[in-house]
Design goal:
65% helix; 0% strand; mainly alpha; 5 helices; 104 residues
Length: 104
């Protein structure tokens, strides 16, 4: 699995978790997050592994060695993804390395 595919799969899995939590009393928060994450997953799926965003995430330590172990944004990156509700998909990817450095 390529790094971009691994990233997209992670984002889709997080979107599914948010969809499972949609409730009438959450003000649409979980649905907005799920849609934003699905949008980001679609964007990530279109990236090549030599794209600057993927290389930036790789340098930040979001991927295991040699592409193994899939995508792992660390605890702060996971929190950022869990709470993501919009803007452009690339903005989420740009924010992840900063989140990873705050958790280190």
């Amino acid at each position: 699995m390529s790094r971009s595919e691994s990233l997209a799969a992670y984002l889709r899995a997080q979107a599914r978790r948010r969809l499972d939590r949609v409730e009438s009393n959450d003000g649409g928060r979980n649905a907005r997050t799920a849609l934003a994450l699905l949008d980001a997953a679609l964007y990530a799926d279109g990236l090549t592994d030599d794209d600057a965003l993927i290389r930036m995430l790789e340098e930040a330590g979001c991927f295991g060695p040699q592409g193994g172990d899939g995508f792992d944004p660390g605890p702060e990156g996971a929190r950022l993804i869990r709470d993501w509700q919009g803007a452009e998909p690339y903005e989420l990817l740009l924010a992840l390395p900063g989140a990873m450095t705050t958790s280190a």
